[in-house]
Structure formats: structure tokens, C-alpha cells
Specification:
By secondary structure, this protein is α/β, with parallel strands linked by helices. Helix content is 41%, strand content 15%. Strands 3-2-1-4-5-6 form a 6-stranded parallel beta sheet, sandwiched between helices. It is globular and about 50 Å long. Pathway: Protein modification; protein glycosylation. It is found in: Golgi apparatus, Golgi stack membrane.
Length: 177
């Protein structure tokens, strides 16, 4: 993280979505707000959730852990303890798993668009829950507020654990759960 931290303002100016992508993302948000009965978005906190699955699920032999349903519950509870009127917006490359494992006692919308529209939609949210991977990382960073991440990505003592320095990977102030 130390590598580009001094350039974060410039990066935020440079890493923007094209107008037509932002238009679709904003339309997605408006539809979600309307579905949950709040067209203006007033007093609503949107939490973007990216759940990475795919090939990551089979990397356990390499010392890698994917996020568990328990992590998702802890992350959801983290935001529920801090905000009211929350809508969780979930994007995933393992949507059936995500739908089965997101807590059921919340307002949640699952989105499936192109990757760039999903990222723009997540980046438009107030806060972010990420599991593993660069897609979620950049979605959280672009959103720019509170981000929770799965802090048990590696199995202790594994080759993966020896190669990763989490201080270089997770942004200062993000919350590991």
C-alpha cells in the first residue's frame, strides 16, 4: 500500500468510469432504492458486497482460504451496528453461493451485469464488504469509505502466507474481520 499511497488523489482523478457506465450504475442504484421504497436515497446507507469465488475455491491446497459465511455475517453485523436503513448490494462470480450464504435478515439485492457495471455500482455505494481478490479491492478503494475485508486469506505457515505482507495489500484504515 505504501507504494501508491502518496499518489491516491491523482489515482482517484485518473481511475474513473466512463459516463455511460456510471449512468447504468446510477440507474441500477435508483432501481434498487425504488424496490426498497426509497426513491431519493435519503437516510439510506448502501453497502456494496463483492464475493469472490471461481477458481479461488480450489486454491486451499496452496494455503489459500476463501471467505466463509461466518465472515459475511460478521461484516454485515459490523455495518448494522453502525448504520440504520442499510441496503446490501451484492456482486459475485459465484452468485448461487452468495445467495445461499448472505445473511437472510437484511435488505439485499443481488446484481449481475457486466464486470465494469458491477464494479461501478459497488464503487457508488457508501461502504464496502470484500472477500478476496483485486475486483473487490478496487471496488472498495474507489468507493472510498469504510471497507471490511476477510483477514484470514491464508493458512498460517503456508507458502501463500509467507509471500503476502498484508500491510502492502490492504489499505490503511480498512477493517479486517
Amino acid at each position: 500500500m505504501e507504494y501508491f499511497f502518496p499518489f491516491r488523489k491523482l489515482l482517484r482523478e485518473q481511475l474513473t468510469f466512463r459516463k455511460e457506465i456510471l449512468k447504468i450504475a446510477n440507474e441500477n442504484i435508483a432501481k434498487i432504492l425504488s424496490k426498497f421504497g426509497n426513491i431519493s436515497g435519503y437516510n439510506i446507507t448502501l453497502v456494496g458486497v463483492h464475493i469472490r469465488r471461481g477458481y479461488m475455491v480450489n486454491m486451499g491446497d496452496n494455503g489459500f482460504n476463501v471467505a466463509s459465511p461466518e465472515y459475511l455475517t460478521r461484516a454485515v453485523d459490523y455495518f448494522k451496528d453502525r448504520y440504520q436503513n442499510i441496503i446490501f448490494i451484492v456482486a459475485s462470480n459465484g452468485m448461487s453461493w452468495a445467495q445461499r450464504n448472505m445473511p437472510s435478515n437484511i435488505s439485499v439485492e443481488f446484481i449481475q451485469n457486466s464486470a465494469v457495471v458491477d464494479m461501478a455500482t459497488l464503487a457508488t455505494c457508501n461502504n464496502t464488504i470484500i472477500t478476496v481478490g483485486s475486483f473487490g479491492w478496487w471496488s472498495g478503494w474507489l468507493a472510498g469509505r469504510e471497507v471490511t475485508y476477510f483477514k484470514w486469506q491464508d493458512k498460517p505457515g503456508s507458502g501463500y502466507a509467507k509471500r503476502i505482507n498484508y500491510k502492502d495489500y490492504f489499505y490503511p484504515g480498512w477493517i479486517g474481520l
